[in-house]
Amino acid sequence: AVLSATLYNILMADFESELQSTVIQ
């Protein structure tokens, strides 16, 4: 369960940064 939560958080953080870099461009 902890591993899944950690992976989920990493994916969400990566998605957010991708989204922000897209908005900047």
Structure report:
- This is LINE-like reverse transcriptase.
- GO terms for molecular function: RNA-directed DNA polymerase activity.
- Keywords: Nucleotidyltransferase, RNA-directed DNA polymerase, Transferase.
- It comes from Euperipatoides rowelli (Velvet worm).
- The chain is mainly α and about 25 residues long.
- About 90% of the residues lie in helices and about 0% in strands.
- The chain has one helix and no strands.
- The protein has one helix at about 1-25.
- It is rod-shaped and about 35 Å long.
- The protein starts with a helix and ends with a helix.
Beta-strand portion reads: under 5%
- Uncertain segments of ≥5 residues (pLDDT<50)? none
Shape, principal axes of CA atoms: rod-shaped
Beta strand count: 0
Secondary-structure content class: mainly alpha
The helix/strand order is H
Radius of gyration: 11 Å
Give the N-terminus to C-terminus distance in angstroms.
36 Å
- Average pLDDT number: 87
For the sheet with most strands, the description reads:
none
Helix share of residues?
Answer: over 70%
How many individual helices?
1
